[in-house]
Amino acid sequence: MSSMSQTPTTDREARLDAAIRRHAGEEGPLLPILHAVQAEFGCVDEAAKRRIADALNLTRAEVHGVVSFYHDFHDKPETRPVLKLCRAESCQARGGEALAAHAERVAGARVKIEPVYCLGLCSVGPNAMVGEDLYARLDERGVAELIGAM
Amino acid sequence: MTVVRISDDALAIACGADRVARRFAELGHEVVRVSSWGMHWLEPLVEIDGFGYGPASPADVEAILADQAGGLCIGKIADHPFIAAQTRLTFARAGKTRPLSLDDYAATGGWKGLERARTMTPEAVVEQVKASGLRGRGGAGFPAGIKWDTVRKAANPRKYIVCNADEGDSGTFADRMLMEGDPYLLIEGMTIAALAVGAQRGYIYIRSEYPHAIAKMRAAIRLSAQIVAPFVLEVRVGAGAYVCGEETSMLNSLEGKRGEVRAKPPLPALEGLFGCPTVVNNILTASAVPFVLAEGAQAYADYGMGRSRGTMPIQLAGNVKYGGLYETAFGVTLGELVEKIGGGTGNGRPVKAVQVGGPLGAYFPPALFDTPFDYEAFAAKDGLIGHGGITVFDDTADMAVQARFAFEFCAIESCGKCTPCRIGAVRGRETMDKVIAGDRPASNLALVADLCETMKLGSLCALGGFTPYPVMSAITHFPGDFVRESADAA
């Protein structure tokens, strides 16, 4: 991949360029780049979209279209801690919906309860994920403790 | 010092396996982290000299070591009825090997299929897969050998092997367990596919909700790179889109595009990744191939019934007493799986419904429990076996709410490319809301049935096309749940 069309002028741009450069030589580099940028900044914002588009010779609209398509990429960073709670059928069958309502009450505005559709632990639900840590067999007390520790 | 074997599967870890392992290590014992046996209700399962103890907590460790944890002891794990009654071909190593150990893999027959394939012509390898009767385990059930042959015969010299590990169906976890527990098996299967069709590169597309599987596969690819060379493998991570489990939207995603479905034709076998001939196989399909090559096509085809040959790793999930992975030959009935092997519901209430095949699979009532697990038999009952997941619901389930959820899920996950799915799912959810509120249920249900017909026939892929399965099966088999108290009657 050719060098960036504009030299980085800020620390943020330098970090962004480094994330782009790490994957720019791969086949179909856009998703790996977006994952790297999301991990680095907690979001893929407007400035990042433009710089990625520049680097990959895409339009800003094309990059925006991809960012907005996938649940994992966000326009703005989430400032609250996030608990991903599985809301799919197997967890529903194990009381997941009532647990989700309880989790929302406990979390209030401090912790974000985000739905996730299946963590692949479907025989031991209800399940949750915080970062890359997994939690199974959650009940009301368990989920409250988890939220309290976040 | 005692040697203690504990799984490092994500499910075991979510149930506290790391804490149990740490406790054994603190007391000076050697902990070996192995794959999971798949008896999930017993996780974390501790194995000492072949005997199992579970579910274990750190507080149980000293009692287990002193042989005073009688209540937790299940006897010899290999003799446990849940394990002894299975036919494990794909999951033959489950519980027995260290997932990333190349020594363990080779010592248990690993690479034998690949070695044999290397002595054969590509045509002969494809013939073996054809003769085995192996069909796509992702859901569609297309004969794997025919797909491979199409790619083999394609003229373009640049070809790809893509493995679909975007296992998003609720109630399924076999792909995850395979990648975390026996990653070299998948690598061997994909390498055999590459030899058979003449591919140079392979991608494994893993959903981002599976960080443990991503880490294991990446490590396994690194450690086995010399063995599979010149074939080159790489993991790509999805980004939270269910529809990317559909093969053409997965290919778009791999190319760095929106995960929108492509119209077929052209078939991915002829114009797939970057427009090149591509084998797209599910994890379980590719992982069945080493057995076929090592033991011969007939050895695999000897299992099963009708046109469903071999074994299926079935996943027992939801409100089930004995949940986990149960690999068996096709032909076992749904009732045996749910009532006998699964032990009914986890909380002891009666089973009301089971959803087979994930969010796009039909709900089956106990009246249909005599249906044998077989692609055609399920299709004849307006259902599908999909990826082999069975989610059990007790009698508190409200099937009208489940039918509404099927539409809601489709609306959330629709890629937006085709109208029946994009608009139909939203209108379906709204109409189900009216039914649930008691607003003209008869005419609104007729509308839902009509809408389902349109979605089934008019959608580009299985997301819109199969959402009618859970909806219509709920309406057909549980009509009582759709008779609601009218809001106006009050």
Describe this structure in words.
The complex is a heterodimer of chains A (150) and B (490). With 150 residues, chain A is α+β, with helices and mostly antiparallel strands. Chain A folds into two domains: 11-69, no CATH class; 82-148, Glutaredoxin. Chain A is 47% helix and 11% strand. In chain A, helix 1 packs antiparallel against helix 2. The model of chain A has no long low-confidence stretch (mean pLDDT 94). Chain B is globular. Chain B has helices at residues 10-14, 17-26, 61-65, 81-84, 102-107, 112-118, 122-132, 144-153, 174-181, 183-197, 211-223, 225-228, 247-254, 283-295, 297-301, 334-341, 375-380, 399-413, 419-436, 441-458, 462-466, 468-477, and strands spanning 3-7, 30-34, 46-48, 51-53, 73-76, 160-165, 201-206, 232-237, 278-282, 304-305, 308-309, 311-318, 324-329, 351-356, 363-364, 389-394. Chain B has 22 helices and 16 strands. Chain B has four domains: 3-82, Glutaredoxin (3-Layer(aba) Sandwich), CATH 3.40.30; 102-301, Rossmann fold, CATH 3.40.50.11540; 304-394, Roll (Ubiquitin-like (UB roll)), CATH 3.10.20.600; 399-482, de novo design (two linked rop proteins) (Up-down Bundle). Chain B has 490 residues and is an alpha/beta fold. In chain B, the strands form four sheets. Chain B has a five-stranded mixed sheet, with helices on one face. In chain B, strands 13-12-16-14-15 form a five-stranded mixed sheet. Chain B has a four-stranded parallel sheet with strand order 8-7-6-9, sandwiched between helices. Chains A and B meet through helix 2, helix 4 and helix 5 of A and helix 1, strand 12, strand 16 and helix 18 of B. Chain B: Keywords: 4Fe-4S, Iron, Iron-sulfur, Metal-binding. Chain B: Belongs to the complex I 51 kDa subunit family.
Topology:
The complex is a heterodimer of chains A (150) and B (490).
Chain A: H1 11-23, H2 30-41, H3 46-56, H4 60-69, E1 82-86, H5 89-92, H6 96-107, E2 112-116, E3 128-130, E4 133-135, H7 140-148
Parallel strand pairs in A: 1-2
Antiparallel strand pairs in A: 1-3, 3-4
Helix pairs in contact in A: 1-2, 1-3, 3-4, 6-7
Chain B: E1 3-7, H1 10-14, H2 17-26, E2 30-34, E3 46-48, E4 51-53, H3 61-65, E5 73-76, H4 81-84, H5 102-107, H6 112-118, H7 122-132, H8 144-153, E6 160-165, H9 174-181, H10 183-197, E7 201-206, H11 211-223, H12 225-228, E8 232-237, H13 247-254, E9 278-282, H14 283-295, H15 297-301, E10 304-305, E11 308-309, E12 311-318, E13 324-329, H16 334-341, E14 351-356, E15 363-364, H17 375-380, E16 389-394, H18 399-413, H19 419-436, H20 441-458, H21 462-466, H22 468-477
Parallel strand pairs in B: 1-2, 6-7, 6-9, 7-8, 12-16
Antiparallel strand pairs in B: 1-3, 3-4, 4-5, 10-11, 12-13, 14-15, 14-16
Helix pairs in contact in B: 6-10, 6-14, 7-8, 7-10, 9-10, 9-11, 10-14, 18-19, 18-22, 19-20, 20-22
Protein name (chain B): NADH-ubiquinone oxidoreductase-F iron-sulfur binding region domain-containing protein
Family (chain B): Belongs to the complex I 51 kDa subunit family.
Cofactor (chain B): FMN
